[in-house]
């Protein structure tokens, strides 16, 4: 479902393979189920984003046929803001051992950010990656709707200032870049590092998971977060190239062939920007 939430210039819009009533039923069922882990809460947020995605797609269809209203626009904007707020509260619900730590990265370790994230467990690291991916998806849906409003002159219909929209778009781009940085920061943890000029891949003492199988699983789990960060609007070309290099590592060293294909898509986008 999450793969349907990101659309970039190389792909047509993908529809969620569920109707809005089906998604609402699923959402209500998820809320009635006791949360057994932080990940189960993320499933609710994923469902909310799928519903929002469907509403925006429905709005696009109605827009093409001339059937839109200021109320619909306001409702979608309110849903975006509400979803953003609820998702931002997820870290507050985490147990203490789920919070990540940071470490300063030597300049020759070829990492994107000077500060790396490390985690207490394999599961915590993967859930943080999922969380940041959902945040990027939320930002993407916001931008998608804003662009619809500006290109079709619907902002005036809903009495929304174009200057205000432009400011929100700029702010959303900044948030996306920060989230992309946060997705890149744990790659030392997930994939290890190579010193500049060396072909040997190393893992710092602070890094987990330990062992070949655990590292393979960890690399597989961050493939989609990296890809999403690499294709979303707002990330600059240099970061896309670095993300593509990490996907190459997953595809080459870990043997996840899908990651190699993703790396090519991200690298192609970097060349276009």
Automatic annotation (TrEMBL):
Query: So which domain of life are we looking at?
Result: Eukaryota
Protein known as: Unnamed protein product
